[in-house]
């Protein structure tokens, strides 16, 4: 099957946002075994959208329209698709009730234009929105498949993965249902991971193995089509174990799941073990603590922490000896260890974490940008490790947070 992704949005053409949805959809369709042969972006214009749809019909079997399902006047996707296919738009009752419940719960005014989000093609099938309010549509007509997905990535991806692709598998008589797992790795680059797994990747047939580089980590998507979930789990678990047994690979694996980040895994492990945590941050300015507290239930394990950017606040807030701090500097093993120790002692937490270093782009205390010390303090003792990150200031800070989470995660796994 050949597919075309028809992304809708004038804001994309104006360069106001990046069309990340096209990359995401291509990734998931290719995992499914569908070749994406065209990407088209069109503005919020009825005539141009209609022409783009007609052109796509001439060259592919499956057209995915993404964006334009909202409540405003320029959200035209379902209207264009309905008129082009000669279908009527009708209200999805379940979606409408969800919309009513949302406005009642939030206390916001329910204006008539919001009801546009729950319209769907009468001759097609509703694609349930697990995150937002705008329902999607899926229809087979004249030997071709059409789908309309919402624009926000947080809504689009689960609708595509969990709702649309299983429906497509049923319609096309594919060999069972699509099942997939996402394995997550931190501390190893994509090229290194692919090299280590070259034999497995090159010999793959079923399940398939697809590597994807994220901003500060790498994921592997394992996918298979099976008639039962049990069969799929057996196949996916077997290939997963082969991957993790590969030399210099398993040590970088931290968890599974599309959205199961290292922060999620670390917070869950802290909760599971009943361990509390505190932090003292310099170059990351509270980013580590904020990342922890983005996770539901973080209040169970996070005692509170410190942001001590200057040498003076490190001494005043944390109680680090000012003379020794001047002697060793803030970008040092001494400072990282003392910050972690003091954060733990002052908060009463089981683990203290510290992050100090040079975010860049300028040097600090004669240390190059990207030089980072991360400390860990537990009842057994205190240690700190030096790291060197490249690229931008923001990347250094993000990677520092990820490395700190990784160190905490490994610390928790090592203790009984």
UniProtKB/TrEMBL annotation:
InterPro entries according to UniProt: CinA (IPR050101), CinA-like_C (IPR036653), CinA_C (IPR008136), CinA_KH (IPR041424), Competence-induced_CinA (IPR008135), MoaB/Mog-like_dom_sf (IPR036425), MoaB/Mog_dom (IPR001453)
Annotated Pfam families: CinA, CinA_KH, MoCF_biosynth
Gene3D superfamilies: 3.30.70.2860, CinA-like (3.90.950.20), MoaB/Mog-like domain (3.40.980.10)
CDD domains: cinA
Stretches assigned to the MoaB/Mog domain: 4-171
Family of this protein: Belongs to the CinA family.
Name under which the protein is recorded: Putative competence-damage inducible protein
């Amino acid at each position: 099957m050949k597919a075309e992704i028809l992304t809708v949005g004038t804001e994309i053409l104006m360069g106001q946002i990046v069309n990340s949805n096209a990359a995401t959809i291509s990734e998931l369709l290719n995992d499914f075994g569908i070749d994406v042969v065209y990407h088209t972006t069109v503005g919020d214009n009825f005539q141009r959208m209609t022409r783009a749809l007609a052109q796509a019909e001439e060259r592919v079997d499956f057209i995915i329209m993404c964006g334009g399902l909202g409540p405003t006047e320029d959200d035209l996707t379902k209207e264009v698709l309905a008129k082009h296919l000669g279908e009527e738009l009708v209200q999805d009752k379940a979606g409408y009730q969800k919309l009513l419940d949302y406005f009642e719960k939030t206390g916001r005014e329910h204006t008539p234009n919001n009801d546009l989000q729950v319209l769907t093609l009468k001759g097609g099938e509703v694609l349930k929105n697990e995150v937002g309010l705008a329902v999607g549509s899926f229809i087979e007509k004249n030997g071709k498949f059409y789908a309309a997905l919402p624009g926000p990535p947080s809504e689009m991806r689960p609708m595509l993965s969990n709702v649309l692709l299983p429906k497509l598998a049923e319609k096309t008589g594919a060999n069972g249902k699509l099942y997939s797992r996402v394995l997550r790795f931190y501390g190893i680059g994509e090229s290194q991971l692919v090299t280590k797994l070259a034999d497995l990747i090159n010999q793959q047939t079923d399940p398939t193995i697809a590597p994807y580089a994220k901003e500060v980590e790498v994921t592997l998507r394992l996918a298979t089509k099976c008639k039962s979930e049990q069969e799929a789990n057996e196949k996916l678990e077997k290939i997963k174990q082969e991957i993790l047994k590969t030399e210099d690979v398993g040590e970088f694996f931290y968890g599974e799941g599309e959205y199961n980040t290292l922060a999620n895994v670390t917070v869950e492990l802290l909760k599971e073990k009943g361990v509390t945590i505190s932090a003292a941050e310099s170059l990351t300015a509270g980013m580590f603590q904020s990342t922890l507290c983005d996770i539901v239930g973080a209040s169970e394990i996070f005692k509170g922490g410190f942001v001590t950017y200057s040498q003076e606040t490190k001494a005043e807030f944390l109680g680090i000896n000012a003379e020794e701090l001047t002697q060793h500097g803030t970008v040092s093993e001494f400072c990282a260890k003392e910050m972690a120790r003091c954060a733990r002692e002052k908060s009463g937490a089981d683990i203290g974490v510290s992050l100090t270093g040079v975010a860049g782009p300028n040097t600090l205390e004669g240390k190059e940008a990207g030089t980072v010390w991360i400390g860990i303090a537990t009842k057994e003792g205190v240690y700190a490790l030096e790291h060197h990150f490249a690229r931008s200031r923001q990347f250094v800070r993000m990677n520092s947070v990820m490395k700190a989470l990784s160190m905490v995660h490994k610390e928790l796994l090592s203790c009984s």
